[in-house]
Amino acid sequence: MLWSRYFLPTLKETPIGVEAMSHQYLLRAGLVHMLTSGVYSYLPLGLKVLRRIEHIIREEMNRAGAVELFLPCLQPIELWKQTGRDEVLKDVLIRFTDNRGRAMCLGPTHEEVITDLVKNYVQSYRQLPVVLYQIQTKFRDELRTRFGIVRACEFIMKDAYSFDRDPEGLKKNYRLMYEAYQNIFRRCGLDAVIIEADSGAMGGDTSHEFLVTAPIGEDTILRCPSCQSCCSVSGDRGEGAKCSKCRQGVLKGEVAIELGHIFQLGTKYSQAQHAQFLDEDGKQKPMIMGCYGIGVSRVIAAIIEKHHDERGIRWPHEVAPFDVTIVPLPAGTEAAEIMDLANRYYKDLTTAGYDILLDDRPETAGVKFNDADLIGIPVRIIIGKRNLADGKVEIKDRRTNEALLVDKNTLPRKLSEILKGTSCLKN
RNA sequence: CGGAGCGUAGCGCAGUUGGCUAGCGCACUUGAAUGGGGUUCAAGAGGUCGACGGUUCAAAUCCGUCCGCUCCGACCA
Predict the structure, then answer these.
(1) Residue A378 preceded by cis peptide, ω within 30
(2) A141, A52, A120: which is closest to A323 by C-alpha?
């Protein structure tokens, strides 16, 4: 991608009223734009990051045996009355009456829709288990939005649902999702804390929350400084309590943001919506369900919270919007030569399958460097006349700030070694 | 939904004891010089001062109502 043909509006100054570091960089690096409180547009660069995260999620979901589908946002209130959640969630449901007079809402989650769908097609134990997921926009009429996309009225969620014949099947799928979540957060560069949690309005028995400690968090977790185990705050357990695992440390409170939550729902929805199957013994039984959510848009904010410095974002390579940014600094009589080399690298590396951002703007070095630091592409190639006089170009690591001068002709090979992880900048 | 703050150009801000044509920085346009960390100079363009109503000879400025945004709290799948 050529920067001059892209849509990447970076901001030099922080917009008014922006407190969270991640929110600040989301806006300044041209990732998102606020339409109104709690409602955000994803600009091209932000969308690219979103797609990279979605890609990781899809790989891990598919690996865990889940199958992707796509459910509607528009949902009849009638469906929600079947489970009584039209009342439970009445404050967050965005309701309206359509032109035919039907009471509708925009889906805040999809348990009712998926249960209704599956019961139409599954009649026998032979068809179970069924595990489905989607990545889709959710709508919640939040009274108080917070930290930009962290708590928004419209946000992107991955939600998966499992339908099993028996509790053992549910436990197996739950375990698979649990492991998939660990992989997803690890690949996103996040050190997720997993704690047993309340099921809240979802209902059901067992549930686990996946959190990341960050100032933008809305939850408090307790961590044992001795054995590092974490747990939630409860009535008889707070900061200062003794760790129940190692019985040595004194629990310390930490602010954390919830990114994922998995639930063993049991039969709450299948009973309410009559999602039954005929078992081997000839008896009708309710399907045993689980549901598994990840706040995808929220993951972006968490990654920035964990991977930034005073100059901008430092994307972990697997979620970075581009693999490499090429920064030519054309000047004087060498200008044409510098741009030719930049274009040649761009073409070769793109052909080799890398996603490249070429900063072809007629800006000064300082502007380009500052923007590059801000948007945080992991690897930067700098082509300037100073080093080119010796036949060299510079490779710079955004994360470590390490720089390496390489021969201009061996750069593509050296770079692919670095990107494949067979080499690092140091040697 | 309670508490606090804010709203003037795309962004960040000044101006608010009522008074000349509403100003500054960044960004933007044109020209020139520069060319490895937001470079310099010159000339420009860009405004319903959040909205509506009131007071006044005169309102960005005073009064009222409303709207929007942010933060704290309550709530939260």
Answers:
(1) no
(2) A52
Say how far apart CA A326 and CA A344 lie, in whole Å: 11
Q: Which CATH number fits domain A324-419: 3.10.580.10, 3.40.50.2000, 3.30.1130.10, 3.40.50.800?
A: 3.40.50.800
Name A225's Cβ contacts closer than 8 Å, sequence gap at least 6. A249, A250, A252
Is pLDDT of A210 > 80? yes
Which protein residue has its CA closest to C1' of B6?
A17
Protein residue nearest nucleotide B69, by CA to C1': A37
Report the distance separating Cα A174 and Cα A168, nearest Å. 10
Which nucleotides of strand B come closer than 7 angstroms to any CB of the protein? Answer: 1-2, 5-6, 11-13, 25-27, 34-39, 68-77
What values do phi and psi take at A171, rounded to 5? -60, -35
Amino acid in position A110: H
pLDDT mean over A226-246: 85
In single-letter form, the type of residue at position A54 comes to E
Distance A13 CA to B75 C1' (A): 33
Where are the CATH 3.30.930.10 domain residues in chain A?
A: 3-217+255-309
The ipTM value here is 0.93
Per the DSSP assignment, residues forming a β-bridge with A131 are A162
Quick check: A376 pLDDT over 90? yes
Q: Is the CB of A88 under 7 A from strand B?
A: no
Enumerate the CATH 3.40.50.800 domain ranges in chain A, comma separated: 324-419
For A292-341, the pLDDT digits (tens) are 999 999 999 999 999 999 999 999 999 999 999 999 999 888 999 999 99
Per the CB < 8 A criterion, the answer to whether A41 and A155 are in contact is no
What does the pLDDT average to over A276-281? Answer: 98
Is the C-beta atom of A331 closer than 7 angstroms to strand B? yes
Which letter does DSSP use for residue A234 in this model?
B
Structural contact between residues A52 and A296, judged by C-beta atoms closer than 8 angstroms: no
Say what the pLDDT of residue A14 is.
86
Which CATH topology does A3-217+255-309 take?
A: BirA Bifunctional Protein; domain 2 (3.30.930)
- The whole-number average pLDDT for the span A419-426 is 76
- Quick one: chain A helix, strand, coil %, rounded to 5? 35, 30, 35
Strand partners, A33: A41
A30 touches strand B (CB under 7 A): no
- Report pLDDT for A427: 46
